[in-house]
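Weekly structure sync, notes
Attendees: PL, DS, HV (note-taker this week)

Item 1: Carbon monoxide dehydrogenase small chain
DS walked through the input record. Source organism listed as Roseovarius litorisediminis. Sequence as pasted into the shared doc:
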Amino acid sequence: MTGTHVGCDTSQCGACVVHVDGRAVKACTMFAAEAEGSEVVTIEGMAGSDGTLSVLQQAFQDHHGLQCGFCTPGMVMSAAALLAENPTPSEAEVRDYLEGNICRCTGYHNIVKAILAASGQDVSAIAAQ
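Item 1 (cont.): predicted structure, written out as tokens:
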């Protein structure tokens, strides 16, 4: 698997977020042996078995929630955890939840928009910031 990225090795950037037993975890803070017996889902596990993008991945594409793509796997995994906890978060809740994920390209606006769209919310009223 090559989708999960090591960005900082200090748990600051969020590029390495994976799901361990359904919980979002920054993989750089965990030894592989700690995951033994656990279900680990990486970004590769988000798409359908036929390669079809998940609703969240498609929303990132549709709303231009990525540029260089380095942070995207961690952003998608964090966003999936948020939507599992809170299926219709507010814009402020999305921004707060992504506090541990750093993107150096997008300024977060389209990432937030993509997450809100994936939750089924109307994003047409969200102004560019």
